[in-house]
Amino acid sequence: MDLKQRIRVIENFPQKGISFKDITTLLKDGDAFRHTIKSMAELIRHKNIDLIAGPEARGFIVGTPLAYELGVGFVPARKKGKLPGKTVKVEYELEYGTDTIEMHEDAIKPGQKVVVVDDLLATGGTIFSTVKLVEKLGGVVSGVVFLIELIDLNGRQNLTEYDVFSLIKY
Predict the structure, then answer these.
(1) Catalytic-residue membership of 45
(2) Quick one: which of 16, 81, 100, 162 has the most CB atoms within 10 Å?
(3) Taking the domain 48-169, which CATH number applies?
(4) What ranges do the domains of the chain cover?
(5) Is the pTM for the entire model greater than 0.85?
(6) What DSSP character marks residue 14?
C-alpha cells in the first residue's frame, strides 16, 4: 500500500515555505491506518519492548494503537501542567523560547524497555526530550519510530545513540 498517496501535503502551512504533511487523510482511511500501525509494529516487533511512549498529541494518535498491536502499555508525555500526578520534566528549546514536557514519575520502572513514537521526525527536539524523560525514569530506550521522517531537516542527528525507524521518508 502506498501510504504517501494517503497523506495530504499542504504548501505554505503553517507559514510560507513549509510543506505540511497532513496525516488526517491517512487516519480517516481505516485500511490505510490499520496498515500503517501494523507496518510500524513490524519495524520494532523484534525489540521485545515493555512500553511505548509518545508525546502529545500526534504521538498519542499513532502510539496507542501501536502499543495495542504489540500488546504493551502506553505512556503519555504531556506539556507542563497537563498530568495530574507527580511528574518529572525536561525543558527543551524551541525556535523562539523553550517548552517543557512531562511524564508521571511512576510511568516507567527502571530497566523497562521502551520505544518512543511520534507521527513525524523533523528536527527531533520533541522526541529527543521524550527520550530523555524515559531515561530520567530509568527506562531503556530500545528505539524511536516515526510514521514520517523529513530527511532534509536532519532530525536523526539528535538521535544517533538510538535505533531510528521511519515508515515514510520525504
Answers:
(1) no
(2) 162
(3) 3.40.50.2020
(4) 48-169
(5) yes
(6) S
